[in-house]
## 1
Amino acid sequence: MSQPTTRESNQYVELVRVSPDFRNLWFGQIISLLGDWFNLIGSAALIATLTGSGLAISGLFVVRMLAPFLISPVAGVVTDRYDRRTILIAADLLRAVIVLGFLFVRSTEMIWLLYTLTALQLAVSGFFEPAKNAILPDVVAPKNLGAANALISATWSMMLAFGAALGGLVAGTWGVYSAFSLDALTFLISASFIWRVGYRIQPTQRSQGKSVADGVREYADGLRYLLRERDILMIASQKGLIALAVAGGFNVVQVAIAEQVFVIGEGGSLSLGIFLTVFGIGTGLGPILARRWSGDRDGPLRQSITIFYALTGVGLLVLAPLSDFYSVNLGMFLRGFGGGVVWVFGTQLLLQNVPSAVRGRVFATEFAFFALASALGAAWTGFSLDRLGISGTLWLMFWLNLLPGSIWLWWTVRRNRARTMPG
């Protein structure tokens, strides 16, 4: 077992060492994600402290998801038309300015400003995320694409773990406004790293028309591509389906557990940091360990998604009774482990199967599915918390989690049968 581990570790190290463009993109992501978790914990803790309402907390996550959903049609076309590196830099600079506005939210009457700024910040993120995914095959060699995707996804998880812990410490010790200030700084540092990426706009992007009518046509072409390529559509819908059932409202539940059940720090900010840390470790380890078996092979990637849907359910079963602090964290870890594999392997299947000319639109549409479903998931979770309580909501999530897992299993079996049929 030690040889595969060493070989895979060397693959990641070699990728970072020999590819300066990927290295700078990766460093920028590390810094930016650190600030993202500072902002999320600060925002959630601030709303919890000022309102004490589960519905108000869920409203934060609804806004965080609806904004990128609404902007996604434009973001997809822009990502396929223009220099993806420039889009990433502009998004970082805009977000640095926007998050400084959180410093002015000081009372319940100013909650509207927090929601407004959150909407603006996440709308800009709606450009950043598809551009980040679309640029990856343009800055790494095809043979390194799987390792690059796994490393970037694991970095998201590691920064969730480290950033959430550090963000919880900062917010719980020095107050939530310190977290907002540091978030703005991280966006500026991220932009400086991405500036060094030697990306050049692709020929397929130069050939696009620049009028509004051309943009509408390009967006419609992207939708037609998804409707025509049913397998790509199914892969792109997975994040949205699991967000509707579980992931969209899970952050709301984590905040509620931290604020009401295991309260550590101001507004439960330290306990929330611990939960996010454990969850992040799970999401980081899952794809790295699962990839040792699957590699970047299409069949094993699809099989892994089915298996780890089931592990997500196990995590919810452990978590739902809220028995004690340790079992809650074990449930967080298992849910993160399974969900991380579903997320990363779904992205890898798209990276391997979607051509560059429509990659931005496909990832933007996938992000739109995910954002809308997350908003709906956060909304129903807020209502459920006020009516069923935390444990009842977690049990409901367990049953709903069976739906996306069953749909993916059905599609996988159907696709395999179709591929083995003669003629």
## 2
Amino acid sequence: MKPVNIGLLGIGTVGLGTYRVLIRNQEEIQRRAGRHIRISMVADIDVERARSLVSSDCVVVNDGRQIIANPDIDIVVELIGGYGIAYELVMAAIESGKHVVTANKALLAVHGTEIFAAAQRKGVMVAFEASVAGGIPIIKALREGLTANRIEWIAGIINGTTNFILSQMREKNWSFQQALEMAQSLGYAEADPTFDIEGVDAAHKASIMAAIAFGVRMPFKSAYIEGITQLQSQDIRFAEQLGYRIKLLGIAKQTPDGIELRIHPCLVPAKSIIANVEGAMNAVMVQADAVGTTLYYGKGAGSEPTASAVIADLVDITRLQTADPLNRVPHLAFQPQEMRDIPILSIDKVLTAFYLRLGVADQAGVLASVTGILAEFNISIDAMLQQPSHNKEESTELIIVTHQCIESQMNAALEKIQSLSTVIEPVVRIRKEELI
């Protein structure tokens, strides 16, 4: 039987991993797919480097359009990244009737709606398991394995760089900057780590999961995004004393009023499984009505873990490319005509609990003033700590953990608390989730 010919756009870290795993495990992959899958053409700007990495029977070009124009190429694998030329090439591949595999979460989060619509019109598949959580098969789990369920919420550590930084801050009592420099020296963080540390990368991934879980068009533009750059080691230490750890979570939750889609640092119980995901590892929890809570854990990035997901998509397409397009698994789990326009809630309408740290004057009546304001806004207290301040004499750190309230209530209460003359530093506020 004729082999399935793959055109690879970009042979960087993941592209090279994909090429090598396909070669190394070709016998096992063929037994599973029913046909030989081979990368027969590669496009990369650095042609000489690319030629040194592949066998002599693999054609190397410097323009991805040559791959798309080749009638012998069955599937195009896009591993370039970004929104620019990657978008142009993916749309051109679809238009030419070729199936597409991509690991590009940014592209899908921003342009996924139009990409999937174009693929639907042309009767081709766009597979993207590698776009979220590297080698963890979370897309397949949400789209197929949990198809009988009404998914209630998803909460995930879906950026290994930030999880590594937070782990170092907790274990070594380092500042954010110290932990970031270590992450960069080990290759976990880019020279420009903005997308990671500001939460944008996690927001891309959470948006893709939310679209699949709830049957909505890509909601990235409506996501609430808050990174970890303002986190301080003392808050990580105080959270630990209270029985919590701080993680950057991507949260997607279906409520009667709409969908919450938020990415921000979060206190989670130290005994929970997700609190104990350390280093650069990823984990995603899914709560569904029939199955309950499921957990997906593993390497969220890296050459071969991500290649594993890319090749799984290649096998799926190989098995299904002759199937009637109307009977394939929909790109976003729900039939295209059944996608809904469910509102994405603004952050001030979200119901959650809070950790508050207040630098206050060490004098009588301060605690009563603060708790009185919280009570005025119907915010009840769950736990409290008081610690000597290391910043100023005759001051103290007051740490309060609240029960759940609407964020707008907390905003109003904090505005009034901050105006107190005895509150001498900006209030630190971090959200808290029990994940039960």
## 3
Amino acid sequence: MGTAGRTVAIVAAVVLALVATAAITMYIRGIEAQAFDDAEMVEVFVAQEEIPEGLSASAASEAGAIDRADRPRVSVPDGAVASLDEIDGLVSADPILAGEVLVRGRWADPGDARATGVEIPEGHEAISVQVGIPPGVAGFVQSGDQVSLIATLTGPGPDAEDEDADQSDETRTQYLLQNIQVLAVGQRVAGAEEGDDIQEGTGQVLMTVALEPDDAERLVFAIENASLYFTLLPDDAEPAETPGRTFDTLFD
């Protein structure tokens, strides 16, 4: 056999090997597909996005981080959540990954130290605030960090009680709280109202901080009435003395 004949034989052998491999692959996939088609399917609840440790089941569900899905019964883990009522009032005991089937054992009472994973300083309270990625320092904040909070609020100006003064509202930006201890941080993607789809690009940072009661009230008022920006502080940072900014003092 000449060189040309050997080349043709080699090419033919390679082609036959590829065809055989493809045929075997298709056969195996066909068997797998048939097995799943014949399997009993059951409804389970699946994490659509990562659920951070300490997040309540209700908050995760409202955010669109939990959805129903059908799975073959043979692949469903023991203790799979069959109804969200089973975990109502509970929080995730540790992070739950996207695509993971929810299991009752991964949820615990909020009073369980392992579930909350935070130690609240004496005289303080834990409170969570949800902000967008940029106001949340682009996700760089971690548990144990120190942050400060800047609020922008529109309301009556400083001379509002003066009958002869201009009664127009004033927009002011200023530090509201400084050197806040961060207890926990979780990042998730919030769901939208359009069907059951998860809307990408709507990331939110869920930050849990320790505040004294008076400051907790101030934070809640700001959440309800102002726009918020957090800043991440270096170690041993001292509170900053700033006058705040309005339209009149922005460039001072």
## 4
Amino acid sequence: MENQFSRTELLIGKDGVKKLSEAHVAVFGLGGVGGHVVEALVRSGIGKIDLIDNDKVSLSNLNRQLIATHSTIGRYKVDVAEERIKDINPNVITKKYQTFYTPETADEFDFSQYDYVIDAIDTVVGKISLVEKCKEYNVPVICSMGAGNKMDPTKFEVDDISKTSVCPLAKVMRQELRKRKIKDVKVVYSKELPIRPKTNGERVPASISFVPSVVGLIIAGEVIKDLIGYNK
């Protein structure tokens, strides 16, 4: 009998679909990367998802963010993302946190409830704190490194933070995690040298549609495979 996840079941089996339907994940950051992570997780059958972001959709988001359309400009990303999720799968249980994750807001979240955490936020301080919390509660986490100022989505790789190279953000993360003696952190990073933005002096990362989207899909794929115990 056909259902929403019939094709998925053909690939990962009934047990895999059941595991995903029972999984609770948290996506921190709903921008170019995080929005595509959410989309892929929901379409794969994740049963419960927490959405964390304090931004509103803006005009400059239209070039790369899945939830950004002219009709959603000015609305909070968590609200737009939740509506889209419910339209894809009304059975998904969602919880919204209209806040930015920082060390100061960390206690707002119960990490013991999560089966997986996705870091798609921008600040190093927030990323480090998020990893620390996940390690404290023994929750799997995957972090997005720099997706801005890139043009080649084929240069992205999945690896442990200790094995990264080229990416400036990964370098800072690697150093900070080493200071804290934190090991075994999965990340998605690029070996493409950053492109210098063609700006008039503003320090704004350059971006394009097909780079953060690929990063988000790679991250979602890693989360799904880990949750179902997929082995090649």
